[in-house]
Amino acid sequence: MRRFVVGLLVAVVVVCAVGAVGIGETVAHPHHDSQHSEFGQSGTATTDPAQSTLVNSDREIGLTTTLDRTPERVGEITATSSVDIPDRVTELTVRIPEDATVVETDGFSENADGNYAWDERTADPSLTFRIPADRRIDSDGPLAEDGELLFTETDEWALIAIPSVGTSWRYSGGGEMTVDQRTEIDGPGVVGDRMAFLGAYDEHSHTAHNQRFRLIVPDAAELAESPETIFETLEHGSDRLRVGERDDEVFMIAAPTEGVDWGVSGLQGGSSDMWVGDDERVDTPTNVWVHEYVHARQNYETTDETRWFTEASATYYAALLTSKKAGSVSTSSSDTWPTARQSHSPKPS
């Protein structure tokens, strides 16, 4: 968080919004370099030196986005963003993804910039919009598949990127204003930081090396490996990998592959969200479960010239860690390394 002081009484606060992989201006890259939209949040405060103590409710804007499958419109997800506005906020504007279609407003109206301004009267304003569920691949990568989907919805379930919703505001009084941003689901489903699954599922969890692994297995998925086997390979990777810091929680979805034209075998977004095809095994050099986990540990920025390293290193460590655990592949001989054709697992016809 950065704070700039202008003159004596006015402060400008800038807070990064929680963006969503594949939503808005930027689509999650099939090279798994965790790109994401960054809809900023900002606020302007008029400082009152006499006001030195504020309760938390006066310091925090609540922004809750509720996702709904609306089965009668397969291919579109309905999202309702509701805002809890402290009394000392005098102006507030909401920004939604460019490909969203607004269907209902309560206390908001569209302004000249295409954003939605609060009417300053409605106590709990809300904005309902629809977004396309499908997100498609835009280039090839080492885990490429025959299809092109990164996120999608079917008649029974949806695996989507959480839509980005940004806010800007003005408020009176001292101190800083923050945003408590949350995502919920109307009906069965589960949300991570950047991805969400809408539909019936079972959840399995495992803790190792100060990390909690959450595995979401949709009812429509048929795992090629047991949850215990998946946790075992990830626990080994968590222990042996000496790259980046461990996140407190890793959120994983086993994506159903039957009848779905996925463009990749797996995808990682945000700090530690990922999905992996339910038919992926852990005993191959391309171990996608470990590949995507490695991406969750890559806490660095690349240039255009070094962008290749993100995928190259994930591919390398997936093969290295898997072979070390199995003791069946020599990492010193190129003869035992996966070829370009072996670096993805085509779906059976």
Task: Describe what you observe in this structure.
By secondary structure, the protein is mainly β. The protein has a domain at 198-343: Orthogonal Bundle (Neutral Protease, domain 2). Helices cover 13% and strands 37% of the residues. It is built from four helices and 22 strands. The strands form four sheets. A seven-stranded mixed β-sheet has the order 1-2-3-14-6-9-8, with no helix packed on it. It has a five-stranded mixed β-sheet with strand order 7-10-5-4-15. A hairpin with a 5-residue loop joins strand 8 and strand 9. Helix 2 crosses helix 4.
Please specify the SSE layout and strand pairing.
Layout: E1 2-6, E2 10-16, E3 40-46, H1 56-59, E4 60-68, E5 76-84, E6 89-95, E7 101-106, E8 108-110, E9 116-118, E10 126-132, E11 135-136, E12 149-153, E13 158-161, E14 166-172, E15 178-185, E16 189-191, E17 195-198, E18 201-208, E19 211-218, H2 227-240, E20 249-255, E21 266-269, E22 273-277, H3 288-296, H4 308-326
Parallel strand pairs: 3-14, 4-15, 19-20, 20-22
Antiparallel strand pairs: 1-2, 2-3, 4-5, 5-10, 6-9, 6-14, 7-10, 8-9, 11-12, 12-13, 13-17, 16-17, 18-19, 21-22
Helix pairs in contact: 2-3, 2-4, 3-4
